[in-house]
Structures are given as C-alpha cells and as structure tokens.
Amino acid sequence: MKKVITYGSFDLFHEGHYRILQRAKALGDYLIVGVTTESYDATRGKLNIVNSLMERIDDVRKTGFADEIIVEDHVGQKIEDIQKYHIDVFAIGSDWLGQFDHLKKYCDVVYLERTKGVSSTQKRARNYEIVHMGIMGTGRIADRFIPEAKYVSGLDVNAVYNPHIDSARSYAERHELGIFTDDEEEFYKNVDAVNIATPHETHYQYIKNALEHGKHVLCEKPMVLEKAQAEELYNLAAEKHLILMEAIKTAYAPGFIRLLSLVETGVIGEIRDVESCFTRLTPDNLREMKDTEYGGSFTEFGSYTLLPIVKILGSNYKGVRFEYYSAPNGVDVYAKAFFRYDNAMATSKTGLKVKSDGHLLISGTKGYIFVPAPWWKTTEFEICYEDFQQNEKVYTKFLGDGLRYELSDFVSAINGFDKGEFKLTKEDSEAIADIMDRFLKWRKRVGAIKKSEM
Length: 454
Fold this sequence. Notes:
Blueprint: E1 3-8, H1 15-26, E2 30-36, H2 38-43, H3 53-62, E3 68-72, H4 77-84, E4 89-93, E5 108-112, H5 120-127, E6 131-136, H6 140-149, E7 155-161, H7 165-175, E8 179-181, H8 184-189, E9 193-196, H9 203-212, E10 216-220, H10 227-239, E11 244-247, H11 254-264, E12 271-279, H12 287-290, H13 297-313, E13 319-326, E14 332-340, E15 345-351, E16 360-364, E17 367-371, E18 380-385, E19 392-395, H14 403-414, H15 426-453
C-alpha cells in the first residue's frame, strides 16, 4: 500500500483545498491529512483563523478523500508522522516549493500546483470587509503599530491623525500612509476603526468621539483612568454595536493565555499570592516623567502588573493600599500596590527610576509558577513543587512586538468572530481603570500633604 500525507489549516474551505486533497489522494492508495491547530498556526504567524479545528476537520472529512485525519500541533511533527505512519509520499502546495526538501531523506516530496485564483485570503475578503484602520497619535507605540499590522490579514492601516499636522505628515511619510490630517472629522471619514495611541488623559474623549462617529476602537493602555468612564464607553459601544478593546498586549499573547489556563486547572492548588513587577529606567525628558498629573510609573506600567492580579484573583479585593517614591516634581518613580482578598494577597511593583527583576510569581497551596522577566512577553514559565524533580518548564511563542495578537482579535471581533473576548473582558478593563483612579487620587492627597509640610 502506497501511503501519502499532506497538511494544512483548511480554513474557510474552498475549491483550492478540495483540489489539493484530490491530487494528493491520486498519488497513492491511502491518504492521511494533518489539520493544524489554531495555536500552532499562531506560532507560524497565521493569526486570523476563522473556523474552529473541529469545523476544519469536518470539512476535510466531507471531501471523502482522507482515509485518516490527524492533528498537527508542533514543529517537527511532520518528520515524526512520516516515520510513524510509514509514509511513501509527502504532498504539499506549490507555494511551499523547496521548503520541505529536507523530508526527501524520509520519503518522496511532491509540490502540488495551487488552484489559481482561489485562496482563503480571497474568500476571507469576499465574506468579511477589509478593516480600514487609522492611527490617532504618532508616538512610540504608534511607531511599533504599523510593522505589526502587516501580519494581520483583513487589516489595512491607511490614515493617521495628530492635532499637529507636521507630526502627522512625518508619521505618514515614515510608514507610507496615504492619508494624514490634523482634522478629526476628516480623519473619521477615511477609516472604519481607530487605534488610539495618544496621552492617557485624552483617551476618554477620543474614544467617545470615535464611537459616536460609528468607528470601532482599539485603545492603548490604560484605556481610561476612571471606572465610570470605562462603563460609559463600553455601554456606548454596545448601544452602537461597535467593538471597543483595550490594548494590553500581554492579555492576548499565547503564552499568557496558556499560563492562566494552567492556573485555572488547579495545577498549583488554590492561589494565595500574585506578585508582578514591571520596571524600566527612563530618561527625564519623556512624558511619563514630566506629566505631573497623569504621568508616573503606575499609570505607565500598572496596566500590565494589574492584569494577572485581576485575571487570577478577580476585582473583589477587600482592600488596596499604595506606597511610592517620587521625583522632585511629585511623579511616582517607583510604586507598589498591595491587595488584600478573602483568601489571598497580591503585590504590583512599577518603576521608572528603580530597577527590579521583572518577574511574575503565582503562589499556590501545591506549588508556584515563576515567569521570568520580561513576563509581559510570556515565552516561558516554570511550574515548581516541593519536590523540585517534579518541576516542569513550559515554552511558548511571542512573535515580534506582540501587537499582532491584539490586532488579530480586534479584526476577528469586527467580523463577528469574537473568540478572544475572554482574554480581556469589559469587567477586567473597568477594574483596572478603577484601581488607576484610586491611585491617582491617593497620590494627589499624599502630594498635597507633603507640600504642606515643606
């Protein structure tokens, strides 16, 4: 019996997929089809899978060509499968020409011509609108946005807005955007969605304006600095059937999602403590050091350090208190937030002028999970026990600067496939905004007391 194997995502199944399977089947007597998991596709940079794994397997089964269907979920599996199933022919689409020649030492390799004029990308474009997105703001985050957006199918970044026209023009030239403007009304006419990357205190009004103009919104962290504002904006988005997402990139990263899932299984028992830290030594001339009202380490990095606390322990803490060191202008350069829950506690550490180890530590009744710095770009973590011989390390991917993950979920949500809503919920964002508000009010009171004592 001559055995043939082929692999693919088979997302949005179309004629091209059918023809590939038909040709692969004709190469032998028995066809095995490997269907890739969504998480494996994500490690390869394919972030916009629409159909579930089971739907894609079912589509392959319905063709009648597959004698056996397996799941591909890791790098190197093709070599394992070829040997395990005693494969004679490996078949793959011609757009991979030459990339699997290394398999020739195990079996014959055949590159099959693709059906011209048919692709998942084209089918996706026919069924789902291309999202034309504009950038509001031209700072550091905005500069990282364009390179990441290129990895997300169905997204076209075509415009930039800045109230200072020279900054808008410079950004557009740098990133080859066709539209730049300092006119907010003109900006909205050219986009379906906006990414807001402006100073913290401007987020609320820009989000509200965009939603009232019928635009979907992805807003950089912290989305807003008051819980009431967050509630109002989420309600407005729901009323207008628009997507509103907060861009805390860690929340959408595969490694962090896997970490949270493992915690939920009880692998380290009941959680009693969460410690998270994010510090960076910052020049004095940056906004976060100069803005005495909204700057500081907590508003700059607190969204990250609060994320695992809120996701793991929830927002129903019994008390929170803050401590900080300040610069001469009153801005917090190192801050701690201490949370007390019924059966747990948590600590958030952020710093602009103090350097600490940027790890995440989750302590439970059976063991603990240690995520090394930079934990917010989760690529590995270790599950640790009393008997260290039982310890286990987990490795995951974090591609590029990580913005592609949140962008992929944003575009999917706009197209009606809101599979990522659980990653950062409305309630999570509202809880973080509430803590930000509490900190800023506390810092203002403490600052006033310090001034009166001088």
